[in-house]
What we know:
By secondary structure, this protein is mainly α. It has a single domain (14-299), classed as Rhopdopsin 7-helix transmembrane proteins (Up-down Bundle). The chain contains 9 helices and no strands. Its main location: membrane. The chain crosses the membrane at residues 24-45, 57-79, 99-117, 138-157, 181-202, 223-248, 268-291.
Amino acid sequence: MSQPDTSSNCSFSSVDELMRTLQLAVHIPTFVLGLLLNVLAIRGFGTILKKRWPDYAATSIYMINLAVFDLLLVLSLPFKVALSQVWPPFPSLCTLVECLYFVSMYGSVFTICFISLDRFLAIQYPLLVSHLRSPRKIFGICCAIWVLVWAGSIPIYSFHRKVEKYTCFHNMSDGTWSTKVFLPIEVFGFLLPMGIMGFCSCRSIYILLGRRDHTQDWVQQRACIWTIAASLAVFVVSFLPVHLGLLLQFLVRNGVIVECRTRQSISLFLQLSMCFSNINCCLDVFCYYFVIKEFRMDVMAHRPSRVQLVLQDSTLTRG
């Protein structure tokens, strides 16, 4: 999504050339590891879902949904690398790859947001929300996320409208950077989910800290606190630079920022942030590992207390 080369005095060829090399270095190992690890994660949570239904259904369904979105992003990476370096053979292929990429990214954002909200409600109101966390309702929420992100991808079909020469993820049309397209993506695609996640994570940590002297499961709850804090930090580090870069590029494309060197720096920053944010599809696997480990420990110990079930079915997830 770099700045088009509209001025003979301000070239972005050096930035794009650098990113072509860097993308290969980052995306090839990300693709290999992400493909393997996310397939294993889906298989692992699928097995848990069958054997431990319905005790761990809520977390398993959420985590499978997140892994599918990550896998979708992984599968889009080879096409993203290839089509960002050459003119697309036909426009529909470029549109499809861009749709897959952004659907997977924002699908992950919304899934993480609902996981965080679900965890907070389970910690704050364990008795009141137990009937709201049925497998059918969780599955319905995941289906709604898919409908929402695909409906939100409609503006992608006009990304390159009236642009004769372009490569995928570059040279977007002016309409792409209009206020009516950009603001909903920025607000509803990132700021609102980040606000919900930040509130839920902070409240969850506060509640768990308040139970320190009133629970026998403090060791597990302490691990939960660190996981919540780390998940929030990873989410912010992964997605905040991307949306900050989109905001700066929005200002460039609307004539607010016109200085050539600044525009080049913004283009590099945006492409770098998008490139490294894709590594999250591999980092999520560490969260999957700890969830599966907790499940197995609980089964072996035969200690399915109410507190443990609430914590294990609503914690140790990314975000």
